[in-house]
Amino acid sequence: MAKTIMIQGTMSNVGKSLITAGLCRILKQDGYKTAPFKSQNMSLNSYITKDGLEMGRAQVMQAEAAGIEPSVYMNPILLKPSSDTGSQVIVNGKVLGNMSARDYFAYKKTLIPEIQKAFDALSREYDMIVIEGAGSPAEINLKQDDIVNMGMAELANAPVLLVGDIDRGGVFAQLTGTMMLLTEEEQKRVKGMIINKFRGDKTILDPGVEMLEEKVQIPVVGVTPYMNLELDDEDSLSEKFDRKTKKELVDIAVIRFPRISNFTDFNVFELIPNVSLRYVKTPGELGDPDMILLPGSKNTIEDLLWLRQSGLENMILKEAYRGTIIFGICGGYQMLGEVLSDPHHVETGGLVKGMGLLPIDTVFSKQKTRSRVKGRFLKLDGDLYPISGAPFEGYEIHMGISSQHGNAKPLTFFEDKGNGVTKLCGTWVGNVYGTYLHGIFDLSDTAEKIVRAIGEKKGIDLSDAPATDYRQLKEDQYDLLADELRKHLDMEKIYEILHKGAED
After folding, report:
1. What does UniProt list as catalytic (predicted)?
2. Where in the chain is the domain with CATH 3.40.50.880?
3. What element of type H or E holds 329?
4. Do 418 and 51 contact (CB within 8 A), yes or no?
5. Angle between helical axes of 202-216 and 171-181 (0-180°, round to 10)
6. Distance of alpha carbon 318 from alpha carbon 331, whole angstroms
């Protein structure tokens, strides 16, 4: 059975996902067959595995760092929030149903056998498993029947490293307070602490570290720096949303829906010189971009109504009539159509008028479409003609079926890698485009071709912009992450903890 170590945090967004990914990379580099694991993930960024199952993207990123194929065993429970009080519950990659927070809290203990089954399957196949917790283990209202923090550590009999975020301040109180709220048995599981996102001279921090170790009687095994890495974000806590981005020669605006999902579709544009990718949520922030991207949404109808009420819909319509490129993916694609109908109350029920920019109608179905695909763009006219015939690999995750009419033109041709079925997907008319396919910009130089086409339209020569190999760039980023963690973590101590396990 695999050796295990668990990364828990004092709160959300302290860097657990990246620390987990970095340790996976280090262990891989050191010759260990390693897998990530997170029993329960709450995120709207998801992924479809090669066998057509849905899991959180954070564990996909960690699997990539470990150099292995993502498996739903790495994330047996995925919660996709559909409202402030409810989520779609996905177990072993398939939709179980929608539940309120209260109903799920009462139900989740019944999922422990599924968690154990997934963990045991990984444990038989790998040398090492790096487990990630969620939020904080010291949420006293959630500790009963916990399945993702100390409850998971007990199931796996895993030692714990506790991570605190110094960038937001109060890291000593975070770590000390968390330890104080744990039971005596839970405290024994914590074998080390990590102070994450540090900027500055570490020697200034040393007296505080000594005092912290004295108070909690647990060693600090590393003070890790703040790292700007181009890796997939776990959820809407993403710092990029609040980043003030300077407008560049090519300016792209992403509409930041309240229930935005799979915004990682657009990460590749951030890597291209002379391009600004901005996330906007008010009409005043939109400005006059060269391209507007409408991402996925976990509640398309509610987010469409928000778009309408906020005034952003009118702004987008004006931009479309001016000739600005509009591109929607998944929920964003559905919004661009004429009618959205939800007869089965998959989301909020009812029938809503769309933005009317594409001649499609969407009906939400009870069955979720999940597939990995490989294909190419069809022949396009207008601004995006340079991507005609460009190859792509991606995946579908959606509850709706869209039908074309009128002057609609199909956007892509692809093969479902699971069953070999080929079909057309997506729609375009003039300067407005939409598709259900996530990851459609990642392969080859598709994003660069779009940027160069926009430059050509503006009379700017961007032909010398280097093509970005997105997959190689991610590999380089994982190596950089591992290098930084090796410099700042006591890996000798961490290996000692791994091999000793949770024993006193």
Report:
1. 330, 438
2. 250-461
3. strand 325-329
4. yes
5. 20
6. 20
Query: Confidence class of residue 504 from pLDDT cuts 50, 70 and 90?
Result: low
* Confidence tier at 140 by pLDDT (50, 70, 90): confident
Distance CA 159, CA 156 (A): 9
Query: What is the phi-psi region of residue 311: left when phi exceeds 0, alpha when psi lies from -120 to 50, beta otherwise?
Result: left
Indicate the burial class of 370 (C-beta count within 10 angstroms; 0-12, 13-18, 19 or more). buried
d(CA 323, CA 291): 10
The pLDDT value recorded for residue 502 is 76
Average pLDDT, rounded, for the chain: 93
Tokens of residue 301, six digits: 């109808």
Q: Looking at domain 250-461, does it have CATH number 3.40.50.880?
A: yes
Q: In which residue ranges of the chain is CATH 3.40.50.300 found? A: 3-231+475-500
Kindly list the catalytic residues: 330, 438
pLDDT tens for each residue of 84-103: 888 999 999 999 999 999 99
H-type helices in 235-328, by residue range? 283-286, 300-310, 312-322
Q: Return the number of other C-beta atoms located less than 10 Å from residue 478's C-beta.
A: 25
Apex 231 CA angle, 151 and 452, nearest 5: 155
* Closest to 375 in 3D by CA, of 467, 452, 451, 437: 437
| Chain segment 359-391, per-residue pLDDT in tens | 999 999 988 999 999 999 999 998 999 999 999
Q: Answer whether residue 6 shows pLDDT above 80.
A: yes
CA-closest candidate to residue 335, choices 367, 366, 360, 310 = 360
| Separation of CA 276 from chain center | 20
Residues 328, 432: Cα–Cα separation, whole Å = 8
Of 228, 222, 212, nearest in space to 179 by CA: 212
CATH class of 3-231+475-500: alpha beta
Strand segments (E) across 160-249? 160-165, 190-198, 220-225
Residue among 233, 2, 225 nearest 126 (CA): 2
For residue 393, list its beta bridge partners: 374
**This prediction's pTM:** 0.91
Of residues 25 and 81, which shows the higher confidence score?
25
Residue 37's DSSP bridge partners are 131
Q: Cα–Cα distance between 227 and 313 in angstroms, integer?
A: 36
Q: Which of 394, 392, 389, 393 is nearest to 378 (CA)?
A: 389
Tell which residue, 43, 7, 499, has the closest CA to residue 263. Answer: 43
